[in-house]
UniProtKB/TrEMBL annotation, chains A, B:
<protein>
    <submittedName>
        <fullName>BlaI/MecI/CopY family transcriptional regulator</fullName>
    </submittedName>
</protein>
<dbReference type="InterPro" id="IPR005650">
    <property type="entry name" value="BlaI_family"/>
</dbReference>
<keyword id="KW-0804">Transcription</keyword>
<comment type="similarity">
    <text>Belongs to the BlaI transcriptional regulatory family.</text>
</comment>
<dbReference type="InterPro" id="IPR036390">
    <property type="entry name" value="WH_DNA-bd_sf"/>
</dbReference>
<keyword id="KW-0238">DNA-binding</keyword>
<dbReference type="Pfam" id="PF03965">
    <property type="entry name" value="Penicillinase_R"/>
</dbReference>
<keyword id="KW-0805">Transcription regulation</keyword>
<dbReference type="InterPro" id="IPR036388">
    <property type="entry name" value="WH-like_DNA-bd_sf"/>
</dbReference>
Length: 127, 127
DNA sequence: CTGTTTGTACGAATATCTTCGTAAACGAAT
DNA sequence: ATTCGTTTACGAAGATATTCGTACAAACAG
């Protein structure tokens, strides 16, 4: 079993931005981060340096302004976080999580259709 | 907006047990906890005392052996954790979370049926 | 070249979480 | 009453996360 990726709250916020934008400078990340929460520039910098030490991001330091990129796979991270959550908070029942998620995060009919399709495919494959 | 419930990892594990068992003593919780992870008794005790300070649990201290009970609603907590996760890690798309959850946490056909039913009901109500 | 801006590095203060040792209180058994 | 096992209270150490000030380097403007 691979060691689980366990980013902290703050690290996750940065990862999310990196996943969305692709390779970015500290300043770019910082500016987006600032919209969501109060933060000093060096704070963001330090966080990203730590993430680099931990291997959560890679960086290109060839130019003066370094460019950071997510080093952990988005889907893999999502999956790990979800599984942990299912285990602890939903006593192992994924469907309970699914219903809870759908119940309170108003989804469009299109999204619901997509999920329905997905369900059908899953059932086919299971045979 | 109510202040979000933000239990730590360890606190969540304890809450999960309390939700499952209902009111319990420290020893009862500790014994279950021990099956999942290494932990000293006083460690569990301290955690639950802190949770009491934070208002995550209530306790009946009338007898020598105190009895603890979850003070935060299970569904509400689940919802808040999920919403946060959807926002940060799934860029706001609940359906993406749903598919990710279903895809990797093999669910039984019964569970899938339950979800399908749930989807239908949701769509009806939305009209 | 000199001063200003923009960036990284580093270290330290602070906060929060986790763990556990030790002591005191209590009840039950001898 | 003394002892023994169980429980709570308290405090502190260790680990991890968060925040930011300061120093130094590079690029840039004049």
């Amino acid at each position: 079993m691979n060691k689980p990726i366990k980013p902290t709250e703050s690290e996750l916020e940065i990862l999310a931005i990196l996943w969305e934008r692709g390779p970015s400078t500290v300043r770019e990340i910082h500016e987006i981060l600032e919209r969501q929460k109060e933060a000093g520039y060096t704070t963001t910098l330090k966080l990203m340096q730590i993430m680099h030490e931990k291997g959560l991001v890679t960086r290109d330091a060839s130019a003066k302004t370094h460019i950071y990129e997510a080093a952990v796979d988005r889907e893999l991270t999502q999956r790990q976080l979800l599984n942990k959550m299912i285990d602890t908070v939903f006593k192992g029942s994924a469907s309970q999580l699914v219903m809870q998620a759908l119940g309170h995060h108003r989804s469009s009919p299109e999204e619901l259709d997509m999920i329905r399709q997905y369900l059908n495919e899953m059932e086919k494959k299971q045979k």
